[in-house]
What does this fold into?
Amino acid sequence: MSKEKAKKTTRLVLIIEDEPDAAHTIKGTFEDNGIAAVVVSSFDEFKAAIEKGLDPSEIVTDGLEGDWEKVVRNAKTVPVRLHSSDLDYQKKARGMGIDVVAKTPDSPQILLKELSKAGIK
It folds into this structure.
């Protein structure tokens, strides 16, 4: 299989998380279970990564002090999942049809299960 074809079939989750410990835990959980993951810490880093050609199969974003909505608008056709403890963000995201996983100590495992159900492996 050519490198180009392999690149297109590899699943990659882009994690946008501004808390380094949370980002490390989520990324580690995904990678320990065979899911490739890249972490950025802000909307601006997300946008730069996409402009440089990063092609994720799914995006998991923190609330980013409200910037999660910019992520959703700029994600194009890539599914976005909100990972936030902010109830207002959760309510708005659900109203927009965005999947939500509340931040809890178990949320990295919950995210992993949700991604697996969505076929992200």
Remarks:
- Residues 1-9 have pLDDT under 50 and may be disordered.
- The longest strand covers residues 12-16.
- The first helix runs from residue 3 to 9.
